[in-house]
Amino acid sequence: MSARLLGGFFRRKYCDILVLPKIMWRAIRLLMLGIFCTALFLGAISVYIFHDVDKNKIGHWNEAFADLSIEAAVFSLIISGAVWLLALLGRQLFNLRGHAPRARIGLSLGIAAAVFQYPFEFVGRRLVPNLAESFLSIYLVAAIFLCTAVLLRDTFKQLKLQKALEPPSTHL
Known about the structure:
This protein is mainly alpha-helical. Helix content is about 70%, strand content about 0%. The chain has one domain (about 20-155).
């Protein structure tokens, strides 16, 4: 994104916070895709095999799956949007401009975030039924910070790898 696209109001160095390298976008998109696809798969297993639905949805399996699909879409948008924002801020804070995590890390994190969400929520509903929504909120916050930390750590690793592969300077 150049300054010309922003109407020429900002210089390139000030617009750098708005620009993420392609690979960072790829990591965030794969994070969202991993969360969404895994949540849909687990939702189908939950509804059609385990019949783990609300009491008013028993017998209405398709309606229960549709509700879980909407929940999966919102869940993936919340986590990936917050991770994108925190990763953007972390890249600026730690001066990681021009470096990005591997895209495969985003997909792995997305799958892990969705896989661990269902057991965490299930245990929360069984242990403390009155605070089931609080358990989900705690999980959302933890998943956002953990995914951001892993992405930033991988970005640090990519920065170190690039510096190690650069030829040494011959200038005296």
